[in-house]
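Support case: FE2/S2 (inorganic) cluster complex. Customer-provided input:
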Amino acid sequence: MSKNRVSRRQFLNYTLTGVGGFMAAGMLMPMVRFAVDPVLQSKGESDFIPTPQKVDEITEEPTRVDYKFEQVDAWYTSEETGTAWVYKDEKGEIVALSPVCKHLGCVVDWNTDKSNPEHFYCPCHGGLYTKDGKNVPGTPPIAALDVFPIKEVDGYLYLGKAEPR
Amino acid sequence: MKWNSQDIQLFIKEREYIDTAVVPLYPVSFREDMKQSVSMTEFIQLLSGQLEKQFKGRLLMLPGISYLKTLSEDKLTSDLKEWEDELISQGFKHIFYITSDSDWKTVEDKLTGGLIWMPSIPLENMDDQYKNSILDDQVKQLLNLFVRKWQNND
Ligand code: FES
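Agent response - structure generated as follows:
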C-alpha cells in the first residue's frame, strides 16, 4: 500500500508536466492551425459561391443571376457582383454561362438583338452566341462563352469558377 | 478597358475595336460645397466602374479629370477642349464626359464629345441593397444611352 503512494516530489512533477504540456499545446495549436488552415481552405466548399437563385425555379429561358463575392486585389479586398446566364437545356440539365464576351470582354445580353432572336448578343461589336453559348462564326468572338461548374445546396444554385471550353 | 497596364496592353493590340473614350469629370472644392463635391466624385466613380465593366471591349475609361471648383468656366472649358482635340486626333470616334456637376451643362454645346450628366445620389445614408438597386437603375439608363449613340453612328 505504502509503495504505491505518490510522493510529494512525484506529485509536483506530474502536475507541472501536465500544466506545462497544456501551455505548450495552447501555444502550438494556433501556430499549427495557422500553417494548415490555408491549405484546408483552398479546396472544397469555399470555391463555390452561393447565388439567390432557387434551383427549381430555373426555366428554359436564360435568366440573369447576380451573386456577390469577395475579390482580393493585391492587398485590397472588395465586394464584387458577378453575373451568370442560367437556364435548363432540353435534357433538363442546368447550364450557367459567363456573360463575358470572348472577344474583348463586354457583357452579353440574351435576346436583345432584334435581327437575331434567341441568341446571346454583345452590344460592343455585334458578337453573337447561340443559346448553348457557342460563338456564331462571322462575328468577332473566336470562342464559346465560359461555363460555370454548378452545384445545388439546400435548393439553391452555387457557382464555381467559370472555365473556358 | 481600364487605365491599367494589363488593359492597356490589350488596348494597344486591339485598338481598332476600342473607338470610345470616356472621361469622368470630378469637381474638387474645399469650401462650403466640399461635401457635395466629394459625393459627386464618389458617385461618378461608382458609375464609371460599372460602365467600364459592361463595355470593357469598346471603351477606354480614362483616369478622370479633377478640377478646382473655383476655376472659371472659360478656363475649364478650354482645358477640356485640349483633351478633346488630343482624343480626336488619336482616332477616338466617340467621346463622352460623365459628371454630376451640373455646371458643365451650360457649356455642353461648346464640346464635341457628349456630356452625360447624372445627378448625384446621396449614397452614404443608404443600406447596401437599396444602394445597389438604385445604381443598377442608373447604370441601365447609361448603357442604353451608349448603345443608342453607337447605333446611330455605325
Ligand atoms: S467585345 Fe463582344 S463582340 Fe467585341
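The pocket of FE2/S2 (inorganic) cluster is lined by residues A 101, 103-106, 122, 124-125, 127, 140-141; B 57 (CB under 6 Å).

Case will auto-close in a few days if no follow-up is received.
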